Amino acid sequence: MINNAITLSVRPKWPEIRDHYAVWSQDREIGRIRHALDASESDRSWEWFIVVPMGLPAWASGTAQDRDTAIRAFSAAWGRLLKETQPERLNRAWELGHAAQLRGAVSQSSPSLAAS
Fold first, then answer.
1. In the chain, where the domains are located
2. Cα gap 99→116, rounded to integer Å
3. Closest by alpha carbon to 71, among 116, 40, 33, 108?
């Protein structure tokens, strides 16, 4: 029997920074949940967003009044994205994102041609 359950792992993005979480699924970071960057101390709203290296619809991000609500909203949006996106398209986006990261790492470690 195939298990179609979506399993998300929400864990701190950086140990020293509170209230900023990375969301993982199947060994990939797929999003973030954090206190809104422009929130005041009295307004402790949360923002969430999916981070897949492809164009995403407006509903792939949002805000919530608390962390648990943000997690539920993120989970619903991720489920919708999986339903509405062909698996091949998602896999291609991951491949292109990985290739871009590798190119960035190589270009940062290579000496500049302008210096020669």
1. 9-108
2. 27
3. 33
